[in-house]
Design a protein that fits this description.
With 340 residues, this protein is mostly helical. It contains 16 helices and no strands. Helix content is 60%, strand content 0%.
Length: 340
């Protein structure tokens, strides 16, 4: 009988043998909006992971700001390295809890696909000028459902899209794997933004409040280890992903410290207002000159009757930092010309 099954089916059976009863099983997925023939090798969530990994939006993350705009140095995080760190933390937790690593990784790799150039400064700029506002987690859904693959989208499973849509703390994912990514995102940026801030001379390890370090640990590595262990210990054997009240409270207080000391620090954010003005001016320019949009975007207005402001927003949100700067120079700054 086993010889009649393909590789995917064998893997699906193995999931039921080794994963927790609370895991999201591949063969029990709610499926895709557009049904398609299943792969004979990869279960559905592994296939989703691969689609995200091979997408253009994923590759562009390497040139998008995480926190520090245009830092001097090769070791500061970008939106791509943030995504990879979220994925690694989330997979560690999922594996320890015997949950579905493929689903966890797919959500983690896709959660920031819709992020703007220049980090949250860019998100703030587009939120100000777009009539319907702008949220990067909703834009990530637009990327995978509408914008990738030449307007066809990636046709991801409902579980992956749910995890991407609900990775912020104000909403709740429908799977435990999505809940893991939601917490791993916070753990990752608190961890690596602290590291980058220390490297950049914004803060020192000794500046971090002692009451937080007493609970979480007195180094970046120890704090990361504490948070991951706490989630695993408190979630094991439960149909939920939870932290102990003491550790969770300390984590969010450390997050508050990072907002007051790093995320709003004048040295760290010295270029943000220029970035905001740049994106707002690009938005205004393309609103007034829709024919200057790339053809694949302009046709969304002509053939699909999408609002021009939404298409312009899609185009700018998809830019990398350096591409946005290059387009601004091309469109706004006169170039030298030969009079002879």
């Amino acid at each position: 009988m086993d010889k009649l099954l393909n590789t995917r089916q064998k893997l699906e059976i193995r999931e039921h043998e080794i994963l927790s009863p609370y895991a999201a099983f591949s063969d029990m997925s709610l499926g895709r909006d557009n049904e398609e023939k299943q792969c004979d090798i990869r279960p559905i969530y592994q296939r989703d992971r691969d689609r995200i990994l091979h997408s253009k939006a994923f590759r562009r993350l390497k040139h998008k700001t995480q926190v520090f705009l245009a830092p001097e140095g090769d070791h500061y995080r970008t939106r791509l390295t943030h995504t990879l760190e979220v994925s690694q933390i989330a997979r560690t937790i999922a594996k320890a809890l015997r949950l579905n690593e493929d689903l966890t990784e797919a959500i983690a790799l896709g959660h920031d696909l819709g992020h703007t150039p220049f980090g949250h400064a860019g998100e703030r700029a587009l939120n100000d000028v777009c009539p319907v506002g702008f949220k990067h987690y909703l834009q990530s859904i637009r990327v995978v459902e509408l914008l990738e693959n030449h307007g066809k989208g990636l046709n991801l499973s409902k579980e992956v899209r749910d995890g991407i849509r609900n990775h912020q703390m104000s909403t709740t994912p429908s799977t435990l794997e999505g809940k893991i990514v939601r917490l791993s995102d916070k753990i990752a940026y608190i961890h690596h933004d602290t590291d980058d801030a220390i490297r950049g001379g914004i803060i020192k390890e000794d500046d971090i409040p002692k009451e937080h370090k007493k609970i979480l640990g007195d180094s970046i590595v120890i704090r990361l280890n504490t948070l991951i262990h706490d989630i695993i210990t408190n979630s094991e054997g439960k149909n939920d992903i939870i932290m102990s009240p003491e550790i969770e409270s300390a984590m969010f207080k450390l997050r508050e410290y990072m907002f007051s000391s790093v995320y709003t620090n004048q040295k760290a954010k010295s270029q943000e207002e220029q970035a905001v003005r740049l994106l707002k001016q690009l938005f205004e320019y393309y609103q007034d000159n829709l024919e200057q949009l790339p053809n694949e975007y302009y046709t969304r207005i002509e053939k699909l009757n999408e609002p021009p402001y939404q298409v312009v927003c899609d185009y700018i949100a998809g830019m990398t930092d350096r591409y946005a700067v290059a387009k601004f120079k091309e469109l706004m700054i006169p170039s030298a010309w030969d009079v002879y």
